[in-house]
């Protein structure tokens, strides 16, 4: 029935006019697309993968942003490759978190020829927390109130979906300023991205509602995530991301894990398994890997969502599991 309809329709005179019209429209689209590429899209560089993911989503349909830190390098201690220096020199915009996170980048930035740098820590309306000294006794010495001393800022701001939405607005605004011709594209991409972030937040809140109990992390990067979803870590192995924990600190940590009945120890891809073994030896502690940068996820617009789901899934599975490791 359908075939019959199509064949009779295509033989009619109306149809050949229709075909000519669609050909014309496709040609116009080709010209429109190539015309847009002729207007140079801004050259955008982004420091870390989760931020790169949000920027890539806002730029979808325009050009692709360049990602500086790939594959598990720590933003606290990385060194710039020559290819990154080339990408940065002459870039129109560099999006980064800011000096409290990418310290090595902060040091070399004055020597780079970048037209505009946009630090996300300066985004209006962002929820910024101070570093909490999660000490070996498991005491949290701050109450998470907003802090203005840059030295004590917790820079892992992207792990709250509310902050991710604020970052999205800041990114769209900076791109619009650099490239007003594509303002409409950036605006509609940003609106779509924020809708998806709201949906993600609802799913994660439902998933993590019943997660309770004590756990410890290797690097105190999850404060924004934990506050947002009411989770409670008792200790961080490495409170200073630029230093390795000493023997005395490790000894204290073993005691803390025992006192608090820590169920899970979360390490990160770049930390040595030897440390995990030393800490959990002889105890019924499960081990899993959290990745606050999504360093094992392919970069792009989906990476942020995959990273957040992976963190929530790992937390849920390790904390809810009742079998021994
Ligand atoms: Zn960190």
- Low-confidence residue ranges: 1-16, 27-38, 136-148
Strand-residue fraction? 5-15%
Fraction of residues in H or I helices: 40-55%
Helix and strand sequence: HHEHEHEHEHHEHEHEHEH
Name the shape in a single word: globular
- Radius of gyration equals 24 Å
Strand line-up in the sheet with most strands: 2-1-3-4
Number of helices: 11
Largest sheet: 4 strands, parallel
Number of strands: 8
Bound molecule kinds, no repeats: zinc ion
SS class:
alpha/beta
Question: What labels would you give this structure?
Answer:
325 residues, alpha/beta, four-stranded parallel beta sheet, 11 helices, disordered N terminus, binds zinc ion
Task: Please outline what is shown here.
46% of the residues lie in helices and 10% in strands. With 325 residues, the protein is of the alpha/beta class.
Please describe the topology of this protein.
Elements: H1 2-11, H2 13-38, E1 44-46, H3 49-58, E2 66-67, H4 82-88, E3 93-96, H5 103-108, E4 116-119, H6 161-178, H7 183-208, E5 215-219, H8 223-228, E6 233-238, H9 247-259, E7 264-267, H10 273-280, E8 286-289, H11 303-320
Parallel strand pairs: 1-2, 1-3, 3-4, 5-6, 5-7, 7-8
Helix pairs in contact: 3-6, 6-7, 7-11
Bound molecules: zinc ion.
The site of zinc ion has 5 residues, from loops.
């Amino acid at each position: 029935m359908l075939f019959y309809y199509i064949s009779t329709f295509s033989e009619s005179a109306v149809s050949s006019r229709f075909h000519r019209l669609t050909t014309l429209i496709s040609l116009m689209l080709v010209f429109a697309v190539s015309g847009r590429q002729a207007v140079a899209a801004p050259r955008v560089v982004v420091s870390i993968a989760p931020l790169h993911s949000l920027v890539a989503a806002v730029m979808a349909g325009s050009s692709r942003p360049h990602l500086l830190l790939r594959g598990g390098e720590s933003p606290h201690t990385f060194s710039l490759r020559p290819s990154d220096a080339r990408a940065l020199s002459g870039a129109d915009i560099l999006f980064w978190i800011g000096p409290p996170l990418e310290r090595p980048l902060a040091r070399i930035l004055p020597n780079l020829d970048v037209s505009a740098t946009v630090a996300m820590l300066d985004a209006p309306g962002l929820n910024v927390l101070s570093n909490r000294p999660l000490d070996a006794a498991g005491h949290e010495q701050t109450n998470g109130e907003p802090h203005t001393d840059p030295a004590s800022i917790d820079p892992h701001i992207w792990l709250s979906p509310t902050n991710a939405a604020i970052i999205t607005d800041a990114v769209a605004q900076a791109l619009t300023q650099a490239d007003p011709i594509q303002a409409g594209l950036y605006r509609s991409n940003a609106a779509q991205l924020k809708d998806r972030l709201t949906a993600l937040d609802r799913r994660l809140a439902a998933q993590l509602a019943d997660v309770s109990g004590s756990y410890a992390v290797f690097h105190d990067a999850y404060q924004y995530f934990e506050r947002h979803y009411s989770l409670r870590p008792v200790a961080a192995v490495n409170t200073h991301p630029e230093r390795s924990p000493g023997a005395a600190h490790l000894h204290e940590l073993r005691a803390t894990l025992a006192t608090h009945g820590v169920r899970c120890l979360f390490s990160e891809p770049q930390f040595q398994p030897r440390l995990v073994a030393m800490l959990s030896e002889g105890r019924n502690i499960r081990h899993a890997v959290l990745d606050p940068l999504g360093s094992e996820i392919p970069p792009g617009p989906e990476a942020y969502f995959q990273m957040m789901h992976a963190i929530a899934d790992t937390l849920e599975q390790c904390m809810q599991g009742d079998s021994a490791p």
